């Protein structure tokens, strides 16, 4: 495995895409292409969490995937800066798929909390005219093939994590039209890619209703999804084991620590074959 950091530029921001690519080897098949999991850590659009970054990428690599971490722009930058950066990152991976042995039809965007909102935004907006005009990329270049959404910020309504929308919209955080646009359950269409979704019933920061509202909208639109709701565990669990615990022990929830293996199995089933390391 080798690591590379790629600057992702918009007209006024620069994000960092840190990639962890599996080495090509004659013993493994030089032409072997792997799915890539592009990780958007959480942080309420106010920071980018280290706990949901490299440890998750290395876990994904350990299961046979390529992995990347996007350190996207946060407050005081506002929408759509981070979405532009994510769309450009997906396009970069697709454009360089031959060079890095990436399966260009298996670019999986994995987000946590507000990072899951960002991932979900690309999932619902990848084929919208405004994003093509903003980025200069075609819809096909920007399209995520699958989404993994971990305890996602979804709705701007009753069950909103208000701080995320305050940071994302800045002075426009009470603009009803923009709040409607960014309430993901209201933007789902049949063009949204398949989704793996997990949350905890006990999450008191981003209520589980966020995932339930999104699941209902996907059901109505005919979007394929797998949903797991675990009974215990607070917000921001990351891998839910000792590796990503903050030292208090509260982020160690064995029942939830199974989610990476469940997600890897889902990627394999969605693609019609076993995941690389399973």
Keywords, please?
globular; 278 residues; 8 strands; single chain; 8-stranded mixed sheet; alpha/beta; 9 helices
Walkthrough of the structure:
The protein is of the alpha/beta class and 278 residues long. It is built from nine helices and eight strands. The chain has helices at residues 54-62, 81-95, 114-125, 129-135, 139-142, 162-169, 176-181, 209-221, 259-271, and strands spanning 2-9, 14-21, 34-40, 66-71, 102-112, 146-150, 195-200, 225-230. The protein has an eight-stranded mixed β-sheet with strand order 1-2-4-3-5-6-7-8, with helices on both faces. A hairpin with a 4-residue loop joins strand 1 (2-9) and strand 2 (14-21). Helix 2 (81-95) crosses helix 3 (114-125). The model has no long low-confidence stretch (mean pLDDT 95). Keywords: Hydrolase. InterPro entries: AB_hydrolase_fold (IPR029058), BD-FAE-like_dom (IPR049492), GDXG_lipolytic_enzyme (IPR050300). This is Alpha/beta hydrolase. It holds the Pfam family BD-FAE. Residues 32-217 form the BD-FAE-like domain.
Q: Using the CA coordinates, give the radius of gyration.
A: 17 Å
N→C terminal distance: 18 Å
- The overall pLDDT average reads 95
Query: What portion of residues belong to β-strands?
Result: 15-25%
What class would the helix/strand composition place it in?
alpha/beta
Trace the largest sheet across and list its strands.
1-2-4-3-5-6-7-8
Largest sheet: 8 strands, mixed
| Oligomer kind | single chain
Helix content: 25-40%
Number of helices: 9
Number of strands: 8
SSE ordering: EEEHEHEHHHEHHEHEH
Organism: Candidatus Eisenbergiella merdigallinarum
GO molecular function: hydrolase activity
InterPro entries: AB_hydrolase_fold (IPR029058), BD-FAE-like_dom (IPR049492), GDXG_lipolytic_enzyme (IPR050300)
Domain BD-FAE-like: 32-217
